[in-house]
TrEMBL record:
<dbReference type="InterPro" id="IPR006130">
    <property type="entry name" value="Asp/Orn_carbamoylTrfase"/>
</dbReference>
<feature type="binding site">
    <location>
        <position position="163"/>
    </location>
    <ligand>
        <name>L-ornithine</name>
    </ligand>
</feature>
<feature type="binding site">
    <location>
        <begin position="54"/>
        <end position="57"/>
    </location>
    <ligand>
        <name>carbamoyl phosphate</name>
    </ligand>
</feature>
<feature type="binding site">
    <location>
        <begin position="132"/>
        <end position="135"/>
    </location>
    <ligand>
        <name>carbamoyl phosphate</name>
    </ligand>
</feature>
<feature type="binding site">
    <location>
        <position position="217"/>
    </location>
    <ligand>
        <name>L-ornithine</name>
    </ligand>
</feature>
<feature type="binding site">
    <location>
        <position position="105"/>
    </location>
    <ligand>
        <name>carbamoyl phosphate</name>
    </ligand>
</feature>
<dbReference type="InterPro" id="IPR006132">
    <property type="entry name" value="Asp/Orn_carbamoyltranf_P-bd"/>
</dbReference>
<feature type="binding site">
    <location>
        <begin position="221"/>
        <end position="222"/>
    </location>
    <ligand>
        <name>L-ornithine</name>
    </ligand>
</feature>
<feature type="binding site">
    <location>
        <position position="81"/>
    </location>
    <ligand>
        <name>carbamoyl phosphate</name>
    </ligand>
</feature>
<dbReference type="Pfam" id="PF02729">
    <property type="entry name" value="OTCace_N"/>
</dbReference>
<comment type="pathway">
    <text>Amino-acid biosynthesis; L-arginine biosynthesis; L-arginine from L-ornithine and carbamoyl phosphate: step 1/3.</text>
</comment>
<dbReference type="GO" id="GO:0016597">
    <property type="term" value="F:amino acid binding"/>
</dbReference>
<dbReference type="InterPro" id="IPR036901">
    <property type="entry name" value="Asp/Orn_carbamoylTrfase_sf"/>
</dbReference>
<comment type="similarity">
    <text>Belongs to the aspartate/ornithine carbamoyltransferase superfamily. OTCase family.</text>
</comment>
<keyword id="KW-0808">Transferase</keyword>
<dbReference type="GO" id="GO:0004585">
    <property type="term" value="F:ornithine carbamoyltransferase activity"/>
</dbReference>
<keyword id="KW-0963">Cytoplasm</keyword>
Length: 301
């Protein structure tokens, strides 16, 4: 269908579009009932296919869809024929005839691309092994609210070069902020970067130097449970703790997309400290996803 857009990564979005999404997220967050409320999903149904567990993504999307006037249908692969081998190309074409958009959480990112190719409704990435753009959009909103200029901040990533790290890189490429990543050898991010303001080191202290925002994530992502022991060994020294944060800027905010493994990638003290923005991050998932949904339906009949 002409005019259809998807939300798979930041790569398809301009700097201005990302900033507009953030501005709208802020408006939606602060709009009180009746004023500035929009119901672009009135009469629309959004399907949600989740191959992996989820607390925040599932609940914030379901609530956001409801608040925008639509309804959601949660589809576990266990319950639909995909789980018994029905091809994605068939599922995508059939579901496109019922629902108005699909939120998909999957392992291989190519699953999302296949849905885009064969389907005819907007596809939203609710996390793939490669990217988690909804989360990074929420993180950017959170840092803006904390008072940072997100286009000129010094951000830092400590730990696994995973889906979160990849989406942080995409965001830094688009917005132009400085991003220093510290990942152990063998665990580098998968997306490449061109911006001279993005760098990769093995040393967390180097990465955190002068940072205003320090973000981390679990050492073993969903689907990597069997590698947990090996990863615990590889990531020793990559914990976000008070000692590491002493090297950051005077005012530094700490982010974690959750769920967290306290005592591994982050300490309990840091999670519960004033520097931690994790609860605002989680809340902001709701607001940014409403802005994304609104934008995707803006020009659709
Ligand atoms: N941060 C995040 O995506 O959380 P869930 O896995 O609970 O959705
Ligand atoms: N990197 C983590 C993020 C969870 C929200 C995972 O993919 O499991």
């Amino acid at each position: 269908m002409a005019g259809i857009r998807h939300f798979l990564t930041f790569q398809d979005y301009s700097r201005d579009e990302i900033l507009t999404l953030l501005k709208r997220s802020h408006e939606l967050k602060h709009s009180i009932s009746g004023k500035g409320m929009s119901r672009p999903l009135e009469g629309r149904t959004i399907g949600m296919i989740f191959e992996k567990p989820s607390t925040r993504t599932r609940v914030s999307f379901e609530v956001g869809i409801y608040q925008l006037g639509g309804r959601s249908i949660f589809l576990s692969p266990r319950d639909i024929q995909i789980g018994r081998g029905e091809p994605i190309r068939d599922t995508a074409r059939v579901l496109s005839r019922y629902v108005d958009a699909l939120v998909i959480r999957c392992y291989g990112h190519e699953v999302l691309e296949e849905f885009v190719h064969w389907g005819s409704v907007p596809i939203i990435n609710g996390l793939s092994d490669l990217h988690h753009p909804c989360q990074i959009l929420a993180d950017l909103l959170t840092l803006q609210e904390a008072g940072l200029d997100i286009c000129s901040m010094n951000a830092c990533w400590i730990g696994d070069g995973n889906n979160m790290a990849n989406s942080w890189i995409d965001a830094a490429e688009k917005l132009g902020f400085s991003l220093k990543l510290a990942c152990p050898e063998g665990y580098d991010p998968q997306v490449s970067f061109n911006s001279g303001k993005i760098s990769l080191t093995r040393d967390p202290v180097v990465a955190v130097k002068g940072a205003n925002a320090v973000s981390t994530d679990v050492w073993a992502s969903m689907g990597q449970e069997e590698e947990a022991a090996v990863r615990q060994h590889a990531f020793r020294g990559y914990q976000v703790n008070d000692e590491l944060l002493r090297h950051a800027a005077g005012i530094v905010y700490v982010l974690h997309c959750l769920p967290a493994h306290r005592g591994e990638e982050i300490t309990d003290e840091v999670m519960e400290s004033d520097r931690s923005l994790v609860w605002d991050q989680a809340e902001n998932r709701l607001h940014v996803q409403k802005a994304i949904l609104e934008m995707l339906f803006e020009n659709l009949p």
